[in-house]
């Protein structure tokens, strides 16, 4: 159908495999380095920053290699910078929250939630074309989809804390 984004890798199965590997490597790496940080705030901030860099790089690389940007960074620099800045901040928060919960209370459900949100984000970023393009995709993720994921991750943390309280009682 015209105007519908397509898979940059050409096949939905390849997109699913690439997205799964990316999410597993990123989230697994972030969880595995927790013991190297003495301060949980530093861990969450560093992890959130690294996560945002990886996913912004994915978002930028896919259209640069397989397509083009609908909003030209040179023609609309303020709009482009605003969307990239907002997207980076949201991606940072998306990772920093579950990493903090993992570091503070060793909660694992928020990390699982981060994997799921990362998978959905990656799958969306591996799509190119369509009527809106990559810049709108990042804005859509940041303004509409990621906040739902962040709230869900917080909810998973609350559920795990309450379940642990029941079990420990």
Q: What would you note in describing this structure?
A:
- The protein is mainly alpha-helical and about 170 residues long.
- The protein has one domain.
- Helix content is about 75%, strand content about 5%.
- The protein has helices at about 10-30, 40-65, 75-105, 110-125, 135-169, and strands spanning about 5, 125-130.
- Strands 1-2 form a two-stranded antiparallel sheet.
- Helix 2 (about 40-65) packs across helix 3, helix 3 (about 75-105) runs antiparallel to helix 4 (about 110-125) and helix 4 (about 110-125) packs antiparallel against helix 5.
- The protein is elongated, with a radius of gyration of 17 Å.
Describe the structure in brief.
The protein has 169 residues and is mainly alpha-helical.
Features:
169 residues, elongated, two-stranded antiparallel ribbon, 5 helices
Can you give the mean pLDDT?
93
Q: What kind of assembly state do the chains in view correspond to?
A: single chain
Indicate the percent of residues in helices. over 70%
Based on CA atoms alone, the radius of gyration comes out at 17 Å
Which structural class do the helices and strands define?
Answer: mainly alpha
Supply the number of structural domains. Answer: 1
Shape: elongated
What is the count of β-strands? 2
